[in-house]
Every structure is written in structure tokens, then in C-alpha cells.
Specification:
Length: 573
């Protein structure tokens, strides 16, 4: 078979049933090979970045590696943001790129870029395939690397002559990666130390990140938290790892997270950091973060230990195994739960939750928070919510409660605008029977608006609820707070007809007409009295839908801990 045909067979053998791929000269052979198999659905995005984000979201909601493909040069470079996003958020993804003929590599051939070298800082591993005989081994390794240990993206760059070469493939029976040992387990001695610290603690707190979701450890986490009556707060990547409506949940914390979660992190005497990396948006000033606490950091990636925050007990290991063993050891040895956990500390955390809920002031206009809360009510909290990046992203996490993992899909480490709608397509393709809604901003949605064509042609029923404030809302918020409200290119609408803070002036662009141009149903809602019915219409529609919700640009996401500051600097109102 040809090398390109071998690539198709490799993906079939890895269980790939869908991929997102945009063709070009250097990937033409690959697309021809896929055209001759009915075992893989190849979805054509309208931009390679859209395909990369769709593959990324496919992985986020399934736990399987998402697959995207592009041609050489500009096709490949258009995948960079999606690859970087997968790297930052530890998402398993395999990105396949065509490359110019081997003999032209390094000679500035048409549409040549050194994609292998270009992506080295943002991949878990990468390959430039120079020998067609290596394809079966490389694809086997790539999927194993992408999905094992700490997940991440892998790039496979394949020159056109390698795709065209004919050979008899030798399928590896056993994969041998001698230098790669991803499955690390915490030993019982270390875990017993953790249990001793838990037993001694008076104010313990679980700080849980996306590692708990990657490890499929949510049930074990809940059992551990309930057994020891320890409050739980998560990162945004960890949203849903612990049910947010649970009495022990303080929901998510950090820059725009709950006051209760931030206060608990500041006041705790034992911080159990499981599968998180002490990101700056969580910690603020790292020196002041959890300064009263002994800190345990359990993570499968040793490079994260003591990188951002010095800890007292770093433990390398996967969360699934560690939590299973913690629960078993505590039961076997009858190790006590924290003495004061059910009294003063829990009462204090509950008081913070009651005193400082996420809230907003009433308005005659539709507020973005209200739109999201209404969506939550109408979907009964069971939708998969995808977001773009900006204020709407934070409000989505604040006003939509998540009780299960893999239901909140967002670009968090990289913060890539334009992520929302193509990611919603990937999530909907992966889980076609689930309601998938992209909560987006007008700025973020417009960055990949062309993917409405993908939704229409491929009949992908992902919904988009645009919170349209005619501005780059998060940047405007910073301008209001720190730059005397001076607008530095943050107005997206018609500056001569913006309509005051209520934003009911000249709306630009017309998202309903744009949607209709792509053959997608659209509706605009301005009146508060029509909001609930409009959202219900969107949810009931059989197919993609764009709901343009006009909201004021004067709203700020609160609470807020300014970058690099501490809990003491938190803006609550």
C-alpha cells in the first residue's frame, strides 16, 4: 500500500472514527486515501484552526485523542493555536500535517515551513517521517504518548513522497518506548503521610485541577472528600471533577472564582493540591498564596513540583491510583478523618458561601449572567457548555453549575479567542445525543464564524448563544479598572452609534443575517421578556442555531483578584 493508505489504516487501528481535516497540495495523497474508506468520517472545517479546535474539544468530552490534519506551510501554521491550546490544557490530540517532498526540505520550497521545529515548544512529542516503513510504529507511539501519563498533543509531519511511497507495512505487535515511562504511582508510604497530615488538620482543603478529569478519578475524589469531610475547590480545568452543587463544594477559585474558595485557600492549614499546577490565575501572588498551609502536591508530572510554588510534600503519581489507595488505606488502617473538619471549618466555609454567592444587580436590560442562569434552568444543568474566551467565559463558569466532568469545555491555559463554536462542533460530533451550547462573545465568535458553514453542511446541531456587547468585554473591564476607561481599540461595533451603556444602538455585524447566509437558523433577542422563550427556541431547534443576545457593555465580572495580587486585594462589588 501507499504511505497515505497506511496512515488511514493506522488511524482505523487506533479506533479513530472521525477527524477534522482541510486539504492542500502536500496532504492531497492523504485525503485520497481517506476518500477510499468508510470507516473514518472526515469533516471539512472552513479553517484549519477551526478543525484543530474541534479535534481538541472532541478529546475533552471523550478522553480519546482528537485528530486533525492540514497541508504544509500555511495549513500547518494555522493549527498552531489549537496545538498550543492542547499543550497548555493537557489535552490528547494528534495533528497530522503534509510536508513538501523530502528532497525540498530546507530549501524554501513552495508552502514549506519547518513545522517540526516550529512546534517543539508546544507539543508533548513530534515526528518528521522520512522513511515510509516507520509509519506504523510512529502512529502507534503517537497515540500512546498523546493519551498516557499527562496527556498532550503530538505532531506527525509527513512529506509528500513518503505518502506516495509503496511498501508492505509491518504492524508492531509490541510497542517499545524505552525512555518513556508515563504511568507513575505514588507509593503507600507517601500516601500514609498524606493521611497523617489529613488527620492532624483543622482546616483542610482540596484544590483539584484537570488532572482529576484526565485520570477519570471523579468518583474516587468524591469518596475521599466525603469520608474526610474536606471542602473542595477546583481550577477552571477541574470544573465538574467534584459536583458543584455538593455541600462540600466551594466551586472554582482564582481570579474570578468564588470568594469562599479564595478565602478557604488563604485560611486553610492543609492544602491538598491534586492534579493542578499552581497557575498564576489561581494563585495570584504565589508567595502569599496558601501561606498558612502545609501543601501536598500530587501530580503525574514531576516537572510541575516546586515550579510555581514551593510545597511541603511533592508526590509523583496518577490521581486514579493515588485516590483509590488513599481510600483503601484509610479504611484498612482505620485512620481518622480530620478532628475539626465537621465543625468550625465546615461552618466557616458554609458561611462564606452563603454571604458571598455569585450575584448581580437587577437591570431593565438582559444581563449576560441572567442569560446563562436561564440557560442553566432550561437545560437542567445537563448540557455540555463550550465557551469562547472573555467575560462570557467566566460568567458561564459562574452561573452554570457542573455536576459531572467533561461538560465544561473552554480554552483556559492559552485563552484562545475563537475557540468556542468550532469546539462546540467537535463536542457535538463526539456526543451527538447531548445538547451542546457555545456560550460566546461577539468578538470571540467572529474569529471563527466561518465554521457555521461546517455546521450547516455536515448537519452538526451545535448551538451558539452570543452575549453581544459590541466590545471586547474583558479588556474593556481592565480598561475601566486600571486605565481610566480609555478605549484602546476595544469597541467592536459602530463607534458612532454604540447606543450608550445599554448597547441598544446600531448593532454590528448582524449575526442573524450572517447565520442565515450560511443556512443556519438565527434569532436576535433584546427584550428581557423574550429571553426565556428565545433560549427555549434555540434548544428545541433541530440543527445549528445562532441566538444573538444583546447585553450591556458596562457589566464587570466579579469577584476579581487583580493579576499578581492577593485575596486581600479582591474586588467583590
Amino acid at each position: 500500500m501507499k504511505g497515505a493508505e497506511c496512515v488511514a489504516e493506522c488511524l482505523i487501528r487506533e479506533g479513530v472514527d472521525v477527524m477534522f481535516a482541510y486539504p492542500g497540495g502536500a496532504s492531497l495523497e492523504l485525503h485520497q486515501a481517506f476518500a477510499h474508506t468508510d470507516k473514518i468520517r472526515v469533516i471539512l472545517p472552513r479553517h484549519e484552526q477551526g478543525g484543530g479546535f474541534a479535534a481538541n474539544a472532541y478529546a475533552r468530552v471523550t478522553g480519546k485523542a482528537g485528530v486533525c490534519m492540514a497541508t504544509s506551510g500555511p495549513g500547518a501554521t494555522n493549527l498552531v493555536s489549537a496545538i498550543a491550546d492542547a499543550y497548555m490544557d493537557s489535552i490528547p490530540m494528534v495533528a497530522i500535517t503534509g510536508q513538501v517532498f523530502s528532497k525540498y526540505i530546507g530549501k524554501s520550497a513552495f508552502q514549506e515551513t519547518d513545522f517540526y521545529g516550529m512546534t517543539l515548544p508546544i507539543v508533548k512529542h513530534s515526528y518528521l517521517v522520512m522513511d515510509v516503513n516507520d509509519l506504523p510504529r510512529i502512529f502507534r507511539e503517537a497515540f500512546h504518548i498523546a493519551t498516557s501519563g499527562r496527556p498532550g498533543p503530538v505532531v506527525i509531519d509527513i512529506p509528500k513522497d513518503v505518502q506516495q511511497a509503496k511498501f508492505t507495512p509491518a504492524w508492531p505487535a509490541v510497542m517499545q518506548l524505552h525512555a518513556y515511562h508515563p504511568e507513575k504511582h505514588a507509593d503507600d508510604a507517601q500516601l500514609l503521610q498524606v493521611l497523617e497530615l489529613v488527620a492532624e488538620a483543622k482546616k483542610p482543603l482540596l484544590y483539584v485541577g484537570g488532572g482529576a478529569i484526565s485520570a477519570e478519578a471523579s468518583a474516587d475524589l468524591r469518596a475521599f472528600a466525603e469520608r474526610n469531610q474536606i471542602p473542595v475547590t477546583t481550577t477552571l480545568m477541574g470544573v465538574g471533577a467534584f459536583p458543584e452543587t455538593h455541600p462540600l463544594s466551594l466551586r472554582w477559585f482564582g481570579m474570578h472564582g468564588t470568594v469562599a474558595g479564595n478565602y478557604a485557600a488563604d485560611q486553610c492549614d492543609l492544602l491538598l493540591c491534586f492534579g493542578a499546577r499552581f497557575d498564576d490565575r489561581v494563585t495570584g501572588d504565589t508567595k502569599a498564596f496558601a501561606h498558612r498551609a502545609k501543601i501536598v502536591h500530587l501530580d503525574i508530572d514531576a516537572s510541575e513540583h516546586n515550579k510555581n510554588k514551593r510545597v511541603h510534600l511533592p508526590i509523583v503519581g496518577g490521581l486514579k491510583h493515588a485516590l483509590t489507595r488513599l481510600n483503601a488505606l484509610q479504611a484498612e488502617r482505620k485512620i481518622a478523618a480530620p478532628a475539626a473538619a465537621t465543625t468550625e471549618w465546615l461552618a466557616q466555609c458554609a458561611a462564606w458561601k452563603k454571604e458571598f454567592p455569585f450575584s448581580f444587580e437587577p437591570s431593565p436590560h438582559i444581563l449576560p449572567q441572567e442569560a446563562i442562569r436561564t440557560l442553566y434552568e432550561l437545560t437542567k444543568g445537563e448540557a455540555i457548555v463550550v465557551t469562547g474566551v472573555g467575560q462570557h467565559q467566566m460568567w458561564a463558569a459562574q452561573y452554570y453549575a457542573f455536576n459531572a466532568p467533561r461538560r465544561f469545555v473552554s480554552s483556559l491555559g492559552l485563552g484562545a479567542m475563537g475557540f468556542g463554536y468550532p469546539a462546540a462542533l467537535g463536542a457535538k460530533v463526539a456526543l451527538p445525543d447531548q445538547q451542546v451550547v457555545d456560550i460566546d462573545g461577539d468578538g470571540s465568535f467572529l474569529m471563527n464564524v466561518q465554521e457555521l458553514a461546517t455546521a450547516a453542511i455536515e448537519k452538526i446541531g451545535a448551538k451558539a448563544m452570543i452575549l453581544n456587547n459590541q466590545h471586547l468585554g474583558m479588556v474593556v473591564q481592565w480598561e475601566d479598572r486600571f486605565y481610566n476607561s480609555v478605549r484602546g481599540n476595544t469597541i467592536l461595533g459602530d463607534k458612532t452609534n454604540i447606543g450608550g451603556p445599554d448597547n441598544i444602538g446600531g448593532l454590528y455585524p448582524d449575526f442573524v443575517k450572517i447565520a442565515e447566509g450560511f443556512g443556519v437558523k438565527g434569532r436576535r433577542v433584546i427584550k428581557k421578556s423574550e429571553l426565556r422563550a428565545a433560549i427555549q427556541e434555540m434548544l428545541d431547534h433541530d440543527g445549528p442555531f445562532v441566538l444573538d443576545v444583546v447585553v450591556p457593555y458596562s457589566e464587570h465580572v466579579l469577584p476579581m483578584i487583580p493579576a499578581g495580587k492577593t485575596v486581600k486585594d479582591m474586588i467583590i462589588k
